[in-house]
Design brief:
By secondary structure, the protein is an alpha/beta fold. It contains 8 helices and 7 strands, in the order βαββαβαβαβααβαα. Strands 3-2-1-4-5-6-7 form a 7-stranded parallel sheet, with helices on both faces. It is globular and about 55 Å long.
Length: 265
Amino acid sequence: MNNANFTGLHVAVTGAGALGGIGRGFADMFLSDGANVSISDLKAPDTGVNKCFRGYSCDVGDEEQMIAFIDDAEDKFGPIDIFISNAGVGFDDGPDGNAAGATNQAWETSWAVNVMGSVYAARKLVPGWKARGQGRFVIVSSAAGLLNQIGSASYSATKHAVLGFAEAMAIEHKADGISVHAVCPQYVKTNMTKGMAFAENNKDGLLEPADVANALKASIEKDEFLVLSHPVVGDYFKAKAMDYDSYISGMARLRAKLSQKDVKL
């Protein structure tokens, strides 16, 4: 798709309740480009009086709630053309520095939200998209899906998993006219990164949510699978693939450095 035109399309975004968040950044971009936008979060977001903008309550880790969100949104604006699975959660590994140290609840919640939320949405949407011969599914995997997030094994593992699901979607449904994009940003200026010294001083830059939204728009226009708002992530991923041992050693050195400085990740 070149010079993408979103006028009149129906775009749905999960995890878009926080003003200044990545999800709201996506919503704002599509709204400004003429789309009808449905957003959800655990608490229904306030979308004001804009008739093209509606908010819904949805726990994406609950399949029944995901189905209800999609059904209600489509009752208002018609079939969803673009679905952005943005909702995500992260938990640290715990005080002992054990990669398996997070609680069972943290792991289970991470799996339910970071992985199954996308699965539930696709399960609901794909049959209609196949029948219409078109649809677009966007998964916010994060750079942690390609690389790793030091200090949060549950986040890294589930973001790797959902990237694998995005790949499977892209492969399985390319012939059905369904396009898939995996958004893999590094640190973005949101409430989640506020006060995180490593994020705020990251050498690769702390982007605004609008930067991530614009990167997605550019990838839609080019029909690219990977959305790299931080292009350097692609370089790191290539280097990782070429020499996995060097990547592991480098990340271990970074972890040791951060531990010495007691940096909050």
